[in-house]
Amino acid sequence: MINNIMIAGVGGQGLVLMTKVLSQAAFNDGYDVKTNDVIGLAQRGGMIWGSVRFGEKIFSPNIRAGEADILMGVESLEALRWSHLLKQGGKIILNNAIVYPTIIQQGKAEYPIEEIANLKNTYDVLELDAVALATEVGNKQMANVVMLGVLSNFLPFKQESWESAIKLNLKESLHKLNIEAFNRAKLIK
């Protein structure tokens, strides 16, 4: 069985780290993993995305429309933008802390609040404020690890695989706090 996970956000939200930790956790559990991400627009505050596919044998990191099992919306507008990749009955883990893209900050477009709310009519949406939870633990920059903690409830990886992946991808001084944030987020289901 192949599992397809899409992560969508804007520059500065730690999406590349999320992709690395997720793919490392899958690898730690013995899965074949393929991943890719687009980060070129990150410096401009633009959209960024990453895909992670894992299973017995994976040949491509690309997720076709209608095949994603889970969409991690680190930013709500980006979740909406990539929702076409979800299969019927797919799950969205949605961080409800809004980061207005440049085009909206410039007044050239409206933030699609209603369209984002309508995602709940089509998909299984679990909404949370990852920034608030990360701030409670000690640092709002851990919102991406909070999102991974929630995601872990829907994946078959062992706790040790997640913790090892976090440790491999973060400085040692950040291990304890990030693992605490990850574990607290596991309570959100």
Topology:
Blueprint: E1 3-10, H1 15-28, E2 32-38, E3 47-55, E4 68-73, H2 76-82, E5 86-95, H3 102-105, H4 113-117, H5 119-122, E6 124-128, H6 130-137, H7 143-151, H8 159-169, H9 175-185
Parallel strand pairs: 1-4, 4-5, 5-6
Antiparallel strand pairs: 1-3, 2-3
Explain the overall architecture.
This protein has 189 residues and is an alpha/beta fold. The protein contains nine helices and six strands. The protein has a six-stranded mixed sheet with strand order 2-3-1-4-5-6, sandwiched between helices.
State which percent range the strand residues make up.
15-25%
**Radius of gyration, in angstroms, nearest whole number:** 16 Å
Overall helicity = 25-40%
The string of secondary-structure elements, in order, is EHEEEHEHHHEHHHH
Biggest sheet character: 6 strands, mixed
> Uncertain runs with pLDDT below 50, 5 residues or more?
none
Strand tally is 6
What is the level-2 CATH architecture name? 3-Layer(aba) Sandwich
Q: What's the CATH class, please?
A: Alpha Beta
User: Roughly how many Å apart are the termini?
Assistant: 23 Å
- How are the strands of the largest sheet arranged? 2-3-1-4-5-6
Structural class: alpha/beta
Number of helices: 9
Q: Classify the fold: give the CATH topology.
A: Pyruvate-ferredoxin Oxidoreductase, domain 3
Key words describing this protein structure:
Pyruvate-ferredoxin Oxidoreductase, domain 3; about 190 residues; 6-stranded mixed beta sheet; alpha/beta
Summarize the model shown.
With 189 residues, this protein is of the alpha/beta class. The chain has helices at residues 15-28, 76-82, 102-105, 113-117, 119-122, 130-137, 143-151, 159-169, 175-185, and strands at residues 3-10, 32-38, 47-55, 68-73, 86-95, 124-128.
